[in-house]
UniProtKB/TrEMBL annotation:
Domain HTH arsR-type: 5-100
CDD domains reported for this sequence: HTH_ARSR
UniProt xrefs under SUPFAM superfamilies: Winged helix' DNA-binding domain
Organism: Telluria antibiotica
Protein name: Winged helix-turn-helix transcriptional regulator
Pfam assignment, any one: HTH_20
Gene3D superfamilies: Winged helix-like DNA-binding domain superfamily/Winged helix DNA-binding domain (1.10.10.10)
Coiled coil, from the record: none
InterPro entries referenced in this protein's UniProt entry, alphabetically: ArsR-like_HTH, HTH_ArsR_DNA-bd_dom, WH-like_DNA-bd_sf, WH_DNA-bd_sf
SMART domains membership: HTH_ARSR
């Protein structure tokens, strides 16, 4: 998923900021950025968290467009769910926020 030239909607900005507001999710992105793509079981071991918890965090990151997952099969037929960082590059600026706010739906209130 490539976001480089795409303008964020208000909902996308909120999802991205919410996804990045958790230290586990920041660690997931950092580990994938440094170590490259990885599969769920191995990444959970490396980060010292359970697979169910990792799945939960990966889903939040995936919903925000920050990571992508692919299921691949090993030579012995085992399904492996690989996760990698999506290609994104945003500069959080007042202009980006103003443009995103203009597209917010009425269902977002404090």
């Amino acid at each position: 998923m490539k976001h480089r030239s795409k303008h964020l909607t208000g909902d996308e900005l909120l999802a991205m900021l919410a996804a990045l507001s958790n230290p586990h999710r920041l660690r997931i992105i950092a580990a994938l950025r440094v170590g490259g793509r990885n599969y769920i079981s191995q990444l959970a071991r490396e980060l010292g968290i359970s697979r169910p918890l990792l799945h939960l965090h990966v889903q939040k990151l995936q919903d925000a467009g920050l990571v992508v997952s692919r299921t691949e099969f090993s030579a012995d037929g085992k399904a492996l769910n690989y996760i990698e960082v999506a290609d994104f590059d945003y500069a959080l600026t007042p202009d980006l926020i103003a443009a995103a706010v203009a597209s917010l739906g009425n269902d977002h209130h404090d």
